[in-house]
Specification:
Layout lengths: L15 H5 L7 H8 L4 H7 L4 H7 L2 H11 L2 E2 L6 H8 L4 H4 L14 H11 L14 E3 L3 H7 L6 E4 L7 H4 L2 H8 L3 E5 L6 E4 H10 L7 E4 L2 H4 L30 E6 L4 E5 L6 E8 L2 E6 L9 E4 L6 E4 L3 H8 L10 E5 L4 E4 L4 E6 L3 E8 L5 H8 L4 H8 L8 H13 L7 H5 L16 E3 L5 H7 L4 H4 L22 H14 L4 H12 L1 H14 L20 E4 L2 E5 L4 H22 L10 E10 L2 E6 L7 H4 L17 H11 L4 H5 L7 E8 L4 E2 H4 L5 H19 L8 H10 L20 H15 L1 H8 L5 H4 L2 H4 L4 H5 L2 E2 L2 E2 L4 E3 L8 E7 L10 H6 L12 E9 L6 E3 L5 H8 L4 H11 L23 H11 L4 H8 L9 H9 L10
Parallel strand pairs: 1-5, 2-3
Antiparallel strand pairs: 3-14, 4-5, 4-6, 6-7, 7-16, 8-15, 9-14, 9-16, 10-13, 10-15, 11-12, 11-17, 18-19, 19-22, 20-21, 20-22, 23-27, 24-25, 26-29, 27-28
Helix pairs in contact: 5-6, 15-22, 21-22, 24-26, 26-31, 29-38, 39-41
Cofactor: Fe(2+)
Keywords: Iron, Metal-binding, Nucleus, Oxidoreductase
Subcellular location: Nucleus
Length: 979
């Protein structure tokens, strides 16, 4: 019998509504985006739910993301991303076979999946790309390059690599022959650092069908394969690089080996810190698209975090942009373009947006650099705040309504303030244009709304224009540092100081950059006021910059050291200075031998602005000057103690600090107009940080003994008794910690000494968010250890500290320095004839050329530690805490130096638990010094774990915190003679 089908019966039924249920309202792109956040096992389970879920859950781009997010270290591609991901799970082979023969279903259509499938399998050989409209030059001179292009516009250069050996040796076949077993890092949208053997990568390139293929983008290729550095040289046009004053391990990533197959590339971005770059292609062809600064490409969104200025760019892959967005552009909105051929070098100026698409398999080398032309832009981009970062990338559309006028007013008022700023800069300011109505963009700028006529009329990539958008209220020392900056906050200061010393001919330029990044003019003015008040010599030109890696501005001027307190806001600054002054007073009172190894205090006070003028009030830490009272920061016990802002006031603040954000800390008082300060005597010689690489082993052992002896002196000092009102104030404002929730687990509150009570409260606050803090710090802390941290850290800190024996306190608190690092240890030279003694005069040192950290050329045999510096982090707590910076920073984890230190220290570090003594919930680990020290590392307010996993890279593969503990602190458990 013949069956008739209607037209509608010939069309398969749409299976999407029934297969997805309530999820059918979501488009496929949203569903696919959600699946990325599941684990591979959950995706596999979800694929069994329905036919459509099976289709979505078996997409190769999904499994590529899942694989890259879970790979740990080296990657080996198994022919498909699903197979590779299943192989990572170490599943039995019979379970992996299910992905060989995928099922097929009719009645399902998806334009989103179709487009993605097309991008995965398309080839670019059939696409026609012309030579482009980027200007081309051959054998251009350095003078012509600087005049026409440097920091101005891109250019495609030929002739720069003609003599490089890489022109013939950097082919896929030759590299495979020479470096097949070498691991290179890949750049992909993954939070993990992934490497792949080159031979495996070549195999992957030959069989892959990825929309955004893996891309070798290795900034350590020169360290991994030094021979590759001999195959090319930096072209003469780009040899000026201000970052070259930094040691190799301190300078940011700046050179990359780039290898990628057809369809791979770099999506739209602006290079880090607004640096400029050159890129030389050795084989293959690349297509470039570029937009000038401030002109965001279509389809790209810029997000700038208001809190720390971190910049995040949302962008399609380079292939997707060229296929889906480029055709939508009118001719006048199209980017500047070019096709780069082997042997050609493209120059990308500071701040320019660029996107790269590999038309075939390519090999290239690229370097970023800072020179005279872009230095100020780099400094500007490092400055704290967010508005200027958005404007540099997205133009005036980064501003909210009215922000442009506000920036103009702020700039003009700053010029009229008491600050003696550089008048030449005022004359160079551009003429302001009246802004027209702007779209509201809450720090996110979508390029689809750009009005280019408005943009071109108002936005200027000029340093005098861009600096208007700096947040003048944000201070370099106590504002959050953007994680997108290419170097750290302290490294930035070190870099500028080294530039100042190394390039005296460029000091006008360097000073302008320092004023942008560090607000150097403000600190310089403050120092001049202090020098005037105390009749000290003014800084020489060499002394204009703050020195050191600390968190406060420090100036070395003649025989004096001036330190201004700004770290963590005004309240913390008062407590820091008050505690130091209280401590110095105690040293003299008890005549501790430690006082001979601490720089003498010459003056201290408070600098502030009142009615547009600087004023200074001397302050020895006692009493409460009116300038402090006006900030509403008077401690409640101020009339009952000699040092109202002493150590117990500081401990009170530390407890609050453990639960406060950086913005809350900084906002405590008018920190932008009031600065506590101290003047101390300058030491002769150099810091250990400067001498580390040149010291003999005997000198370093002597240093370990010196530190043990001085830490002994410090930890034996009596600390001020707790005033009753101070304790009552703390008890009233903070509940006593009970993390475990068990009444039996809580030690009797009344029996805990007040000093330990403060210490326990701080630890408890820090434990509450320990996982989120470690996660935020991220690499190199292994994520699987972060997941286990809560079960490693104890809940009951009174029992963890084990301070009681037979109902009595058996473990005392002590003063702790908290920050004895390599730049806080000062050393003096021993001359040829004899080592320095306490009778060696300053005249002797001057004769031998060792004053002010300068070596005049006299022969020396050794260096001896003389002083411990910077007591602004003084606290009272467990003396074990002082071992953390000493062992990890000064000793770099060397067990021999730790042993030498302990032999000199000779004080108990913990109460030994007898074999008959029970410690509930802790077992034997509570009696291990290594366990106590490891817990303090994890709970530390600074990223101590980052240091640990950087020093001991093998620990990144550790299976437990106990393994890390034993490796780093295991030698402490042998210290039993004095426990």
């Amino acid at each position: 019998m013949e069956v008739e089908y209607s037209e509608t019966q010939c069309v398969p039924k749409d299976r999407r509504p029934d297969a997805l249920g309530d999820l059918r309202v979501l488009p496929d792109e949203i569903l696919c985006a959600m699946l990325v956040y599941l684990t591979p096992r959950d995706v596999a389970r979800l694929s069994c739910v329905s036919s459509v879920m099976y289709i979505l859950c078996n997409e190769e781009p999904l499994w590529m993301s899942l694989c890259l997010d879970n790979v740990n270290g080296q990657l080996q591609y198994k022919g498909s991303w699903k197979k590779t991901a299943l192989d990572q799970l170490h599943l039995p082979s019979e379970y992996q076979e299910t992905c060989i023969n995928p099922m097929h279903f009719d009645g399902f259509n998806s334009l989103f999946l179709l487009r993605r499938h097309y991008r995965c399998y398309t080839t670019l050989a059939g696409f026609t790309f012309d030579s482009g409209n980027v200007e081309r030059k051959n054998n251009i001179s350095l003078e012509d390059f600087r005049q026409e292009f440097d920091a101005k516009k891109p250019v495609l250069l030929s002739g720069l690599a003609d003599t490089w050996p890489a022109r013939s040796t950097w082919t896929i076949d030759q590299l495979l022959l020479n470096y097949g077993d070498t691991e290179f890092k890949i750049s992909q949208r993954s939070s993990r650092k992934i490497s792949v053997k080159f031979k495996d990568y070549v195999s992957y390139m030959q069989i892959q069908h990825d929309e955004d293929p893996l891309y070798i983008f290795d900034d350590k290729f020169g360290e991994v394969v030094p021979g590759l550095l001999k195959d090319y040289s930096v072209p003469h046009l780009f040899q000026e690089d201000f970052f070259d004053v930094l040691d190799r391990d301190k300078r940011p990533a700046f050179r990359w080996l780039i290898i990628g197959p057809e369809r791979s590339g770099a999506s739209w971005h602006v290079d880090p810190a607004l640096t400029s770059a050159w890129n030389t292609l050795l084989s293959g062809r690349k297509r470039w698209a570029l937009y000038p600064p401030g002109r965001v490409p279509l389809g790209v969104t810029v997000h700038v975090n208001e809190e720390d200025g971190d910049v995040n760019v949302e962008t399609p892959s380079s292939l997707q942009w060229w296929l889906d967005f480029y055709p939508l552009l009118a001719n006048e909105d199209k980017p500047i373009e070019c096709t780069q051929l082997p042997g050609e070098t493209i120059f990308v100026p500071s701040g320019w947006w660029h996107c790269v698409l590999n038309l075939e398999t390519t090999v290239a080398v690229t370097q970023n650099f800072v020179n005279s032309a872009n230095f100020e832009f780099v400094c500007l981009d490092m400055a704290p705040g967010y508005q200027h970062k958005g404007v540099c990338r997205a133009g005036l559309l980064a501003l909210n309504e009215g922000s442009f006028e506000d920036s103009k007013k702020t700039t003009l008022s700053t010029e009229d303030s008491l600050s003696d700023s550089d008048q030449t800069r005022k004359e160079k300011r551009i003429k302001f244009c009246e802004p027209v109505e702007e779209p509201n963009s809450e720090n996110a700028v979508n390029s689809t709304s750009i009005n280019h006529n408005l943009h071109d009329q108002e936005f200027s990539y000029d340093i005098n224009f861009l600096e208007m958008f700096l947040d003048k209220g944000r201070d370099h020392y106590n504002s959050l540092w953007s994680s997108s900056n290419c170097i750290g906050q302290r490294e930035m200061r070190e870099w500028l100081w080294k530039l100042w010393i190394a390039k005296p001919g460029l000091r006008n330029l360097i000073w302008k950059g320092a004023c942008l990044a560090l607000n150097a003019e403000k600190w310089s003015e403050c120092v001049r006021e202090i020098c005037t008040f105390h009749e000290l010599p003014f800084p020489t030109d060499d002394e204009r910059f703050p020195v050191g890696m600390g968190s406060n501005p420090v100036y070395l001027i003649a025989d004096h050291v001036i330190k201004l307190y700004v770290e963590d806001g005004l309240e913390f600054s008062f407590n820091a200075l008050g505690t130091e002054l209280e401590f110095y007073s105690l040293l003299c009172k008890v005549d501790s031998p430690l006082k001979n190894h601490i720089p003498g205090v010459l003056a201290s006070g408070i600098l502030f602005i009142e009615n547009g003028s600087y004023k200074i009030v001397p302050w020895d830490g006692k009493g409460v000057p009116n300038v402090i009272a006006s900030c509403n920061l008077i401690p409640e016990n101020s009339l009952e103690v000699d040092f109202p802002f002493g150590v117990w006031s500081k401990k009170n603040f530390e407890i609050k600090k453990a639960g406060m954000s950086i913005n809350e800390l900084i906002s405590s008082g008018d920190g932008s107009r009031i600065w506590p300060y101290i003047v101390t005597k300058r030491c002769n010689g150099k810091t250990f940080a400067e001498l580390r690489e040149t010291l003999s082993w005997e000198d370093t052992l002597y240093l370990a003994s010196f530190l043990g002896e001085q830490l002994r002196n410090l930890h034996l000092l009596p600390f001020p008794s707790l005033n009753a009102s101070t304790l009552a104030d703390a008890e009233e404002k903070m509940e006593y910690p009970c993390v475990s929730g068990s009444m039996e687990a809580v030690t009797n509150k009344l029996s805990i000494p007040a000093e330990w009570d403060f210490f326990i409260r701080t630890l408890t606050r820090r434990k509450k968010d320990v996982c989120s803090r470690l996660t935020k710090w991220g690499d190199p802390i292994p994520s699987f250890l972060i997941d286990k941290v809560d079960e490693y850290i104890p809940d009951d800190f009174p029992k963890f500290l084990n301070i009681f024996e037979d109902g009595k306190v058996a473990k005392p608190c002590s003063w702790i320095h908290s920050d004895i690092m390599d730049d806080n240890i000062h050393m003096e030279p021993c001359c040829v004839s004899s080592c320095l003694t306490e009778h060696t005069s300053a005249a002797d040192l001057m004769h031998n050329g060792y004053v002010n950290g300068k070596n005049g050329g006299a022969e020396r045999t050794s260096w001896r530690p003389s002083h411990i510096l910077d007591f602004s982090d003084l606290s009272i707590g467990d003396p074990i805490c002082d071992l953390i910076p000493i062992h990890l920073d000064v000793f770099r984890g060397d067990p021999n130096l730790l042993k030498q230190f302990l032999e000199s220290y000779r004080l108990p570090l913990a109460r030994k638990i007898s074999q008959h003594e029970s410690v509930d919930g802790g077992g034997s680990k509570f009696g291990r010094l290594s366990f106590i020290a490891m817990c303090y590392c994890i709970l530390h307010e600074d990223n101590i774990l980052g240091t640990i996993f950087s020093l001991c890279k093998e620990l990144r593969m550790a299976k437990s915190w106990e393994e890390v503990e034993e490796t780093v602190w295991g030698d402490l458990n042998n210290y039993s003679g004095f426990c």
